[in-house]
Design a protein that fits this description.
The protein is mainly alpha-helical and about 325 residues long. The chain is built from 14 helices and 5 strands. Helix 2 runs antiparallel to helix 3, helix 7 runs antiparallel to helix 9 and helix 7 packs parallel to helix 11.
């Protein structure tokens, strides 16, 4: 708010903004108006426009407590928040937080991890800032929205070879005619089961005996939030039969947590001297094999994909020899 009074040959202006009051005199009314507009804007910015006098770390910590904690991937997201809290970005005042701060964080983080990791962490930052703006009134705008993100990595095309699978099974100590008594042997069984079913590592670890049926398994909770049923091949049924005397007491079928499966798979892969292979590559291999039997809509029902473009561009990866064999 501003008021103007002419006193002699000068104009006196008084302003009130954000609980503060200032005044000044000018030769012309126009100069007084320009000063008033500039000073009102500055007073509002200095007061934060209602933004609390907090640091960005306060925003991220509240987000972790109130938002991340309710997500199924809470642990993973909390780890990302912890990484952000160790960066200088965490000490930026909310009143002065700008896209430049986010861009500088992006550049620093890009020197430490891959572009894909930076993009995932930027997604968390963006959601946190969006919640803070819409629901808490802690920001006037989302600074992440104006920051360029690293280009997405090309879709992964890696498929395991038969030789690599044999080396993995040999290293884990898994034998097709013996129950997998050890956790490492069950990692080998899980790898084969994944190739037969296209199930994710987390889905395999979460599978319980009460969801195993004669010809399929039921997954009540999946990555995209929708339950699904997965048909079992003859080989997958044989693996289930192997596991029953070992873990068949009503609990998890493979008796492995995702963290244990990941750690043991990495160790096994290193001992087998196999490079650049992820457990998730089994899903691509499985869907490519299943594509010789099912059409894309049937594949989507098995895999749980709701976006057929992802299924076709990322997971369905036949080689040129595969396509040539079909023509023959």
């Amino acid at each position: 708010m501003a008021t103007y009074r002419k006193r002699g040959n000068r104009w006196r202006v008084e302003i009130w903004a954000a609980g503060a009051r200032k005044s000044a005199s000018f030769p012309t009314r126009r100069e007084a108006q320009l000063w008033a507009e500039r000073e009102q804007t500055q007073l509002r910015e200095d007061a934060g426009g209602g933004i609390p006098n907090r640091l960005f770390r306060d925003l991220m910590e509240r987000y972790a407590r109130e938002v991340s904690a309710r997500k199924r991937g809470a642990r993973r997201e909390r780890n990302m928040v912890n990484v952000i809290l160790r960066d200088p970005l965490a000490d930026a005042p909310l009143k002065k937080l700008s896209p430049r701060d986010i861009a500088e964080w992006r550049d620093r983080r890009g020197q430490q991890v891959s572009d894909a990791s930076v993009n995932r962490e930027m997604a968390v930052l963006s959601h946190a800032c969006s919640i803070a703006r819409r629901e808490w009134g802690w920001l006037r705008a989302n600074p992440v929205s104006d920051v360029r993100r690293p280009p997405p990595a090309p879709p992964r095309t890696r498929r395991p070879t038969d030789e690599e699978t044999e080396r993995l099974l040999l290293t884990t100590g898994y034998h097709p005619d013996q129950p997998p008594e050890t956790r490492t042997a069950r990692v080998g069984a899980a790898w084969l089961f994944a190739i037969e079913t296209a199930m994710r590592a987390g889905e395999i670890c979460a599978l319980t005996w009460d969801h195993v049926f004669a010809r399929h398994v039921h997954l009540p909770i999946t990555k995209n939030g929708y339950p699904r049923d997965v048909p079992l091949s003859k080989r997958a049924l044989e693996i289930i039969a192997q596991l029953r005397p070992v873990t068949g007491d009503g609990g998890p079928v493979f008796d492995l947590t995702p963290a244990v499966l990941d750690a043991l798979f990495r160790k096994t892969k290193a001992r087998a001297m196999i490079e650049d292979l992820h457990f998730h590559d089994s899903r691509r291999e499985a869907l490519t094999r299943l594509s010789t039997i099912y059409g894309v809509m049937e594949l989507a029902r098995i895999s749980g994909h709701r976006d057929l473009r992802i299924l076709q561009n990322v997971y369905y990866r036949p080689s040129i020899d595969d396509l040539a064999d079909r023509m023959a």
